[in-house]
Amino acid sequence: MSTSSTRLPEGRYGRSSDQRADRTLKVVGAVLSVLMLGLVGWFGYHYVAQNEISAEVIGFDISEDSVKVHLEVHKDAGVAGYCTVRSQSEDGAEVGRADFRFDEDATRVDEVVTLRTTSRGTSAELLGCHTG
Membrane-spanning regions, if any (predicted)? Predict the structure, then answer.
């Protein structure tokens, strides 16, 4: 008794439908990956490019009713904006918050600003900077 083979002869009938489906899925996956990478890059670029003002707290000096905050601000020339700074007391309660404007044409502004507080603050925190 002989056994029959269910395999098709090699190269006689072309590729099977499974191989065509696999190739199609690979092409669709590659195209979607490139599109997703492009979209992430586009959003990343616009997030960085739109952020025209950045700053950091260099240091601060505390007194009973105020905190002197040394800010270093980097911005595009001619862009006006403001940075929000707050101070908290030892127990974590907010004792002062203020916006400080930066309208200079310089691209780097190094300034000490005074934040008035309702009681003794123990910290100075930069909450963010915005154009406008």
Answer: 25-45
Q: How many CA atoms lie within 13 A of 17 on its CB side?
A: 0
* 19/65 same-domain check: no
Domain count, the chain: 2
Of residues 115 and 131, the one with the higher pLDDT is 115
**Residue 15's domain spans which residues?**
11-50
CB 85 within 8 A of CB 113: yes
* pTM (two decimals): 0.61
Residue 83 burial by Cβ neighbours in a 10 Å radius (0-12, 13-18, 19+): buried
Residue 89 and residue 27 share a domain:
no
